[in-house]
Every structure is written in C-alpha cells, then in structure tokens.
Amino acid sequence: MKIYVDGTLYAKEDAKVSVFDHGFLYGDGVFEGIRAYDGTVFRLREHIDRLYQSAKTIALEIPFTREEMTQAVLDTVAANEKRDAYIRLVVSRGPGDLGIDPANCSRPTVVIICAEIKLYPKALYDSGAPIVTSSVRRIPIQCLDPRIKSLNYLNNIMAKIDARRAGALEAVMLNHQGRVAECTADNLFFIAGGVLKTPDLMNGALPGITRATVLELGREFPMGTEEGNYGLHDLYNADEVFLTGTGAEIMPVISVDGRQIGDGKPGALTKKLMEAFRHRRTRDGIAVPYAAGVAKA
Ligand code: PMP
Predict the structure, then answer these.
(1) Which of 115, 130, 149 is the last residue of a domain?
(2) Distance between CA atoms of 141 and 232, rounded to whole angstroms?
(3) What does the pLDDT average to over 151-175?
(4) Ligand 1: which residues within 6 Å by Cβ?
(5) Alpha-carbon distance 250 to 120, whole Å?
(6) Atom 4 of ligand 1: nearest residue by CA position
(7) For the residues 86-91, what does the mean pLDDT come to?
(8) Distance, CA of 220 to CA of 224 (rounded, Å)
C-alpha cells in the first residue's frame, strides 16, 4: 500500500504524521471518504468541492488548487493499482504547538489512503437492517455545523456506541429539537405515500454525496422528493426506510426502534433505487490514470 503524505508516496509503515499535528491533538481538520469503482473515482469533483467547503468554514487554507487535489487522489489510486477502493482524503491543520491556536500551525498536512473497501455483509442488503435511535443528539448547527465533514467525530462515535450496544447496524440521530437529522455515518431516507423524503440539511445532516445521487435518481424516476422536518413518528409510520453513504451505498432498513417498517422486508422502491444506483457507480466517475499494464478486473 502506498500512502500519500504531503506530496510524497510512502510505504504503509513509513507513512507518518507529527504528534504535534492539530488533527491529532484537537481533531482540527477535514476529510472525505470516497469510492473507486472499476477504475473510476465516483463523484470525485463533488467530494473535492465538499472538502474545500468544509475547509473554508473552519478557515483552513488547503495548499493546493482543487485541480491539484483531484490529480493527487487519482495518482494515489493509480500508484496503488486498485480498480475498486475506499479512499480516505484527510487535510489537517498541520503541526503546531500544544495550544489550540491554529495560527501556530505552519502548513496543513494532506494524507491520501487508498484501501480495500470493507463492505457490510451482502446478506444484509437482501434482508435489510434494524436500526435504533441514539440518546445522543446531533450537535446543533449553531455550535458546530454538521455540514462540515470535520475530524471531530465524537458526537457520531457516541451514537455509534449506542447502536452497537443495541445490536443495531446504525443509529438515528435526532437534533436538539427532536427532529430526525441523520445516522452516525449515513444519511437517512424514507418513503411515504410514494414520496421520497429525507431530512433537510438544516436539521443537522452532512450533505452526503450518496444522498444527492439518490435525490437525483428519485427526480428521474420520477417520484416526488421532499427535504423536510420529520420526527420519529414519520419514520415509524413510513412505508420504506433506507440509509445512504459512500461505504453503505443504499442499505434497506426493516425496523426502527423495534417498529417494523412496511412488511419487514426491503421495500420495492428501495430495491429500484438500489438497482439504479448500481448503474450510476461507474457512469459518474473520473477515470484513474493507471500506468500501462494495470489489468482491468
Ligand atoms: N452523514 C455522516 C455523518 C457521514 O459521516 C457520512 C459519510 N460517511 C454520510 C452522512 C454519508 O455521506 P456520503 O454519502 O457522502 O458518504
């Protein structure tokens, strides 16, 4: 495995970041999780845009243009000779001193890891997953906007611990007003009366790249789509529920807090969206510039 750190590719054991990096000391930084499918990087432009938007909000100046960053990701995937991969792109505030002031950090650290993708078990996509609501509320938008994909994931990690303890794959996170926001590492959708619904981002959700793709698919089908304010009552009484995320893609949900959704099996529209998403995976990608001789899978 070759890992990109600040412009150089290192073997895994040699890829290192300073213990004075404020990404390590304070979670000061931003990141992206990206997929490559059959030699193309899915919606890379959108991921790079989201990274730069997150960085802008935390006043972190990335030392590359968007084009240079895009190329660095593509070159790292090419150097790893992988056609299918999970790519982690991290930009931290960089090494500084032990105070929190970012003014003491001279230059951001940029890391790109191109790894094997660890998928949820295939059987779960056929059977659907149970989820529960976490007691941990999503950080209010006035405190730390969840639209920022930052290196501070403790809020989500606390909720993930709730999910694990309850034997569930994911946990629903409500915002401080009790409205449904998203899950710990996935966006949340439901279908009611044939309309595809997902919480408005202002309820405290990450603008997921998969979320945006699914909303596009919904509009193309065509089916009604709605981004709104919802409570658990809406979820419990939905006809279908599913999660979306780069790792999960579209994961059907068959129960929420023990309330069965629909007939307790993945819903028909969810299955249609899963099928349509599969066709999108390679259509919406940027081709990886492999050296000659990298075999096509
Ligand atoms: N919400 C959160 C909190 C996330 O961390 C993620 C990404 N894992 C998502 C939603 C899904 O976003 P995407 O579709 O861009 O992976």
Answers:
(1) 115
(2) 20
(3) 97
(4) 33, 156, 182, 185-187, 206, 208-211, 244-246
(5) 11
(6) 185
(7) 98
(8) 10
Question: What's residue 119's pLDDT?
Answer: 84
Question: Which CATH number do you get for residue 92?
Answer: 3.30.470.10
The Å distance, Cα 159 to ligand 1 centre, comes to 14
Please state the rounded mean pLDDT for residues 16-21. 98
Most ligand 1 atoms within 8 A of CB, residue of 31, 141, 246 to mutate? 246
Per-residue confidence band for 297, with pLDDT thresholds at 50, 70 and 90: low
Instruction: Give the pLDDT confidence score for residue 295 in this predicted structure.
Output: 57
**Residue 248 C-alpha from the chain's centroid:** 9
Q: Are residues 131 and 273 part of one domain? A: yes
pLDDT band at 65; cut points 50, 70, 90:
very high
pLDDT at 116 over 80: yes
By most ligand atoms within 8 Å of CB, the mutation choice from 37, 45, 206 for ligand 1 is 206
User: Measured in angstroms, how far is the CA atom of residue 245 from the centroid of ligand 1?
Assistant: 5
Residue 31 within any structural domain of the chain: yes
22/15 Cα distance (integer angstroms): 17
SS3 231: coil
Does a structural domain hold residue 50? yes
- Residues 204, 138: contact at Cβ < 8 Å? yes
For residues 106 and 149, give the distance between their C-alpha atoms in angstroms, rounded to a whole number.
22
